[in-house]
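Task: fold both queries, return C-alpha cells.
Query 1:
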Amino acid sequence: MKTIWYLALKDLKILFRDRLGTFWFFGFPLLIALFFGSIFSTSRSSAASLKLAVIDEDRSFESQQFLEVLGQVPSLQLKSLPLDQAQDQVRRGELTAYLRLPKGFGQQVGFLSSNPPRLELGLDPSRRAEEGLLQGVLLESATKFVQDQLTDPNLLKKRFDQVRADLLASKDIDPNQKRMVELIFDSLNKAMTIPDSAEGMGNLSFIPVRIESRAVYNEKVLPPSSYDITFPQAVIWGLLSVVTSFAIGLVVERRKGTLLRLRLAPLGLSQILSSKGLACFLMTMLISLVILLFGRLVFSIRIADPLQWVVAVISTSLCFTGIMMLLSTLGNSEQAVSTIGWSVLMPLSMIGGGMIPLFFMPKWMLTVSHISPIKWSITALEGAMWRGMTWQELALPCGLLIGIGVVAFSLGVVMLKRKMN
C-alpha cells in the first residue's frame, strides 16, 4: 500500500511541476463560472441592446409619440435612418433589424380602428432568434401607446387641438362653420373626463398593429438558408481543431529534440518554422474547402462571390496559422498546450458568437467581442457567401484577420527562439 501511495505522490508532483498547466486545471473552470455567471445574471437593463433602425414615413404626432414609447424600452437602441441606409446596415449585420412606420400610421392606430397599421420589420437572417423578442416588444409598446392616448388627458387634449387646428385651417369651411367647430371643441374640452375604470381598458382584446417580418439580404443573392448561416461556424470549429493539433505537434517535436536535430541540419530556424506555418496554412485551407464543398453538394449552400470567398478563407487561414504558432509556445508539454489552447480558443469562440448569440451578452462583453478573431472570421465568410458585402466592406474583417495572424506568428517565433536558446 505504501508503494502505491508513493507512486501516486510521484504522479501528482509531476503534474504540479507544470505550474502553467496546473493553473488551467483550477483557474479555467473558475473563469468559465464567472463568464456564464456574468451572462445569465445580467439584468435586462444591462443586457446588450438590440440595435433597431426606425424609418418614420408618417411623421405624425402619433408616430412620434409611439417612437417615444418604444425608446423607453431598455432592451432597444433606436437609430433614425433612411430606408436604404437601414437596409444596408441590417444586411451587413451592423443592426439587428429596422422598423418602418408607413404613411397613415397615425390615422389607423387606435382601439376603434378596424384596420390597424402594418409595420415592416426587416431582420438580419442570421438573427432570427431575436424576431420573437422584437415582435413582443413592438406589440407591448403599441398597446401602451394606445392606452396612454385614452387615459392621459394631456394627450387627448393634444389630439383634440390638432384636429381642431386642421379643421379651422381648412379652406372648405366657411366662417359660420368654423365658429360652430370652435364651440363644439370648447364643449368637448370642458366635458372631457377620464373615469377611474379607464385603467382596465388594457384588458380589452385588440390588435394595435400588425407586424410583417422580412429577411434583409442582398437582392443579387438568393435568401440564405439555415445551412448557409451555420456552415461558416462549422468551418471555424474545423480550424480550431487544426490549430490545436499543429500546436501540440510542435511541442512534441521540441520536447523530443526533433527541432534540435533539424537545426543541426543545413536548415535555418526560420525555414523550419516557415514550413510548420505553411503546413498549418495548407491544412486550414483544405478543411475550409472540404467543409464548404460538402455543404454545397449536400445542402446546396451558396457562395455569392467566389473570389471574395477565396480572400476570406486565405485571411482566416493566415490568422489561425499565426495563432497556432503562438499557442505552441505557451506550455512545455502536450497536455499543457492542449489545455491552454482550448482554454484560449473556447472563450474566443464564446465571445465571438461561435457558441452564444451576441445579443445574449451584456454590453461590456459585446464590446470585448471585437478582439475575437472568431467574430471577424465569421463576418468575412458570411460577407462572401450570402451577405453580399462589397470589397470595401470586406476589407475590415480580412485586414484585421491578417494583422492578428502576422502579430501572433511573430510573437510565437520570438518566444520559441527564447525557449530553444
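Query 1 returned. Query 2:
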Amino acid sequence: MASLANDPGGRRRILFVDADGNRKTIRLGKVSKRQAETVKLRIEDLVGAKLSGGTPSDETSRWLATIDDTLHDKLAAVGLAERRAAAQLESFIDAYLEKRQGVVKESTIMVDRLAKASLLSYFAADRSLRSITAGDAADFRNHLLASGLAEGTVRKRCSVAGKLFRYAMRHGLVECNPFEEVPTNSLATEQFSFVSEVDAQKVLAELPDCQWRLLFALSRWGGLRVGSEVRQLTWDDIDWQKQRFTVRSPKTEHNQGGGSRSVPIFPELAQLFDERFEEAQVGETLVLPMLAKCTDTALRQLLVRAIVRAGVEPWPRPWHNMRATRQTELADRFPGHVVCKWLGNNETTAIKHYLRVRDDHFEKAAQNPAQSVHEQPRKAAQTDWGESTKPLEKQGDALARNRVHKCSVVREGLEPPTKGL
C-alpha cells in the first residue's frame, strides 16, 4: 500500500513498494492534502494492477489519460505508466491534413496549408505540441504581423492553428489549446464601396456580350457570389412561372438547408435573362457556359478593365462590394430575414460584412415625413417581358423544356403573375 508523507513548506510525497519489492517515491510538490489523497488512491490501484498482472480500473485509466505531463512523467519514471509519445508539429499537421482530404473542399485544405507554412516558419518542424505555450502563440501572432501580413490574414492563420490544437486535445495529445486567447475572429472588411445604380449602368454598357452583362447583373442586382454560385446556374434552375430561380451555394452547403436557395427574378435581371435565353443554343445546360473556361482571377481582371473603360473609379473587391451593395439596397425595402434568405447569409454576417449606412439614409431621416410621400417619385416595379416565338428544335433537352414552359407564361417583374393572354 502507498503512504502519504509531508515535507517542509507544504510539499507532499507518496511512498510505495513496487512489484519488485523496491521502495519508490513520487514527489507531488505543493498540493492540498485532498489532491494528494486522490493521487495516492490512484497509485495504489496502479501498483495493485502491476502486482496482479491485470489492468487498473476504468476510473483510474481515465484519470491517467487526463493528468498533466509533469505528473504523468513521474508515474512513468517509476514504472506505473507508459511514457506519452510526444507529437511533433509537422508530422501532426501532415496527418491532420491527410485525414481531411475528400472531407472538406480543396480551398479549405489550401488555407490550412498556408497556416502550416506559417507555423513551420516560426516553430521547428520537430517541435513538440505540448511544448507550445500560450506565450508562444502570442509571439507567433506578433511574428506574423511583423512580417507584413494583414490583421485579417493573421487572425485566419491563428484560427487554423487553434483548430489544429483543438483536434490534438480531442485525441489526448495536448491538455490545452495555446491559441485560446489569441484573437481569431474574422474582421469586417474596411474596403467597402457602394456601387451606385448610375455607375453600374455605365459599366454594364461596356461589357462585351450578353453573358457578361448577365453575370454582372447577377452580382450587382441578384446578390450572387462570383464565381462559385454563378458557375452552377442552369436553365432548369429558372422558374419562369414563379419568377424566381434556384441558386446552389458551395460556400454554405455544409450548413443545414444552406445547399441552395431561391432568389427572385428582380426586374433588373428579367430582360437580361430573356436576352440570354433567346441567344442560347438548343441543348445548352448552363446559363453562363463561358465561365467553364474562365478563372475567378480572370473574371476580376476583365471586370476591372470594363470599369476603367466606363470612366468609373475602380472599387475594391469588385464582386463582393456589388453583392454588399445589393444587400444594403434590399434591406431598405424588405425585412432582414427575407433579404438574408435571398442572399444566402444570416443577419449577423450581413451586419458585419455587408450592410452599410449611406448618405441617403441621413437625407431620408432629415426629411419631413409629409413631404417624403409626395416628393419621392415612385419607381416602376414591372418590366415588359414579351414572349419567345423561336421554334423548338429538340423537345427532349433541358433548354427546349424551358422554352416550352417560358412561352406559356406572361411574366411581370416582381408583381404577382396575372392570367396570360
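Both queries returned. Flag for query 2: The two ends are 97 Å apart (CA to CA).
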